[in-house]
Description:
The protein has 229 residues and is an alpha/beta fold. It has 2 domains: 119 residues, Rossmann fold, CATH 3.40.50; 98 residues, Arc Repressor Mutant, subunit A (Orthogonal Bundle), CATH 1.10.10.10. Helix content is 41%, strand content 21%. The protein contains 8 helices and 12 strands. Strands 2-1-3-4-5 form a 5-stranded parallel beta sheet, with helices on both faces. It has a 4-stranded antiparallel beta sheet with strand order 6-7-8-9, with no helix packed on it. It is globular.
Amino acid sequence: MNKAEILIIDDEPQIRRLLEITLHSNGYAVSLAATAKDGLIMAANHPPDLILLDIGLPDKNGQEVLKSLRQWFTNPVIILSVQDDEDDIISALDSGANDYLAKPFRTGELLARIRSALRSVVMEDSDPVIRGHDLEIDLTTRTVKKNKELVKLTITEYSLLALLVRNEGKVLTHQYLLRAVWGPGFINQSQYLRVFIAQLRKKIETDSNRPEYLLTESGVGYRFVISQP
Length: 229
């Protein structure tokens, strides 16, 4: 059993039922809410390990619900939406969503996103050494090894990689990364980000044209995922 508790806030009965069956069959405990009001009350009374939040709720926009949650709720929130608009996605991610999925979605992909989001929470309080099958990143010593060989990174390259690693599985928008690494005056300088992501991929990926660690979310940003040993 996974034992993690997941709150689903979605007004579509069919979606709630599908998610409930899928998550229960994969060992998760599930709570259901059909409105923003009920979802916020349930989250406050019994905070779950993760929330699946629909953007198109009948009583309150999901973006507003997310902002309300992020005033106190620190666990992962994954956005579900019938709209695949980049501006909506970026807005949700910048407001604190960990991830997003456009409806209709594949249940296998949803489960993978949930596992990744929950794993990122565990990482915050665990060993600062992150290991993939051929990659090792030590956040304490600030060292990176590929196939047990030390990888030389510039200060900026390491800062960018460490930020992505600390948010493993979470999509970080272009603007967020530029602001965090280069400063608020660089949020429109997306070429900086493309150059440094390309440099990192050459150093940590086996094939920089087919990355397995630094993944692109087209038009939105990047995410770091762990390829398990």
